[in-house]
User: Fold this.
Amino acid sequence: MQGLMMDYPLTLTHFLERAQRLYAQKEIVSKTPVGIHRYTYGDLYARVCRLANVLHKLGIRKGDRVATFAWNSYRHLELYLAIPCVGAVLHTINIRLFPQQIAYIFNHAEDKACFVDESLLPLLEPIKGQLKSVKNFVVMSDKPAFHTGLSPASDYEMLLQQAPAHYDFPQLDEQQAAGICYTSGTTGEPKGVLYSHRALVLHTLVQCLADSFGICERDVVLPAVPMFHANAWGLTLSCTMLGAKQVFTGPFLQPRDIAQLIQDERVTLAAGVPTIWIGLYQLLKKEKFDISSLRTMPVGGSAMPQSLIEAYQKDFNIPIAHSWGMTELSPVGTVSKPKSYLENIPEAEYFKLRAKQGIPVPFVEIRGMDEGGNEIPWDGVTIGELQVRGPWVVSGYYNDPRSPDSFQDGWFRTGDVVVIDKEGYIQIVDRTKDVVKSGGEWISSVDLENAIMAHPKVLEAAVIGVAHPKWSERPLACVVPTEDAKGSITRDEIIEFLSDKVAKWWLPDDIVILEAIPRTSVGKFDKKTLRHQFRDHQWPE
Ligand code: AMP
Assistant:
């Protein structure tokens, strides 16, 4: 039909060019091993042009995968933009995976080059013989010289210095791949999720909506989520599109580092997994930092305990934006903000709502399916598997024959078990593999953890199902006490505390006190390890 709108491609190149034209003087701040590094979007653009020339010189062509093995920093941001904008595919590798998984991922993606932070060389050097496809390693160092057993290896800064300053970015097709990320793979080998330019652009636009994270030019954004995990939740692209100041932590992810950066840089939005905010809260209760600049904290990756959402709101006036997402969704799927007419519901209900994972953002469709393949009603009680579809939802894993099981009639099966209330707010009650199956009924490990974590003496709690002679499985709670409660917390007081909060048959049959809960590569509770550790647990009489 004539007279339609232009067929303008949705590509990341637009974000890059826009940032340099409109926001050249806005700042990007990185904490590095040699101190705070500051430069502007104008500087970023100049270096991205040089980097594009470097990629060309290294033989990187359209569609080639290029690995990054790095912390959050301005250099990682340069790679985030240069690699997709030359038409290649940015492959962010999770540095916390096991060496064998890292090697598997390199080989599966057939990465042609790898950009690695100097501090992470010890993780790659032992597996260098297994990295079959990598033709060049480029080391990002803050010092004039470095040593590495990787070969051939060159110095990032040196390559940039020697490269021409000018680069004409090619016109790209919006359906071209821009990035690839592998799932953290708690079961089996990790699986690759390939992101198109179009998917990332649409995801960015929707992430910035007021009812999502509401990111704008005035924001100062600190992604405490690593850039090697699910596109740093899309935050760095959102900031680049709008010229928002970005603050990178580098390898410094301790609560004190984060509190200091929030205070010094006047951060308005900080995002990360609950673990980070549990640690920060403990610190803020003991020491004074000025975090009054924060206007919101998006939290996701695992369930944010309701008690902590309440505590941040009441003690520091910070609204947590609880969000659900997956690597397979680029990653944002839902965000929990009370609708206008739910603002004034009774306080207890209000925080319960805020602790849900929220309603789907525009263009993400959701449905819950029961075991018989029927769609569950949105009644807030019926349990089913969450399925999603939308323009930034994976349609199949990268070169992976295991894919079909993950899809059903054009919907992606998330493996998350949910209830959906009549307003469309989802609540994750478990992973399909983590629910405790007691005598044919399901017990939500997440709900139990939430209830236990509200106990003042409890720092963290993870609940797992352990084999039981009568009920097939019963819940075992693994509890880490707060510093002050070490040695004094008892099993009975936790059970007593829970008795009016959960159904009687949900009460854990036993509680073990641990020093720490084991974590997965992306900081979530590692229940697989716990299940293994307690597989022969002797239940009390
Ligand atoms: P990943 O792809 O590593 O980001 O992991 C995605 C998974 O993390 C989801 O399938 C959920 O099981 C879990 N997850 C993400 N966000 C939340 C949340 N807000 N609450 C509970 N679980 C979550």
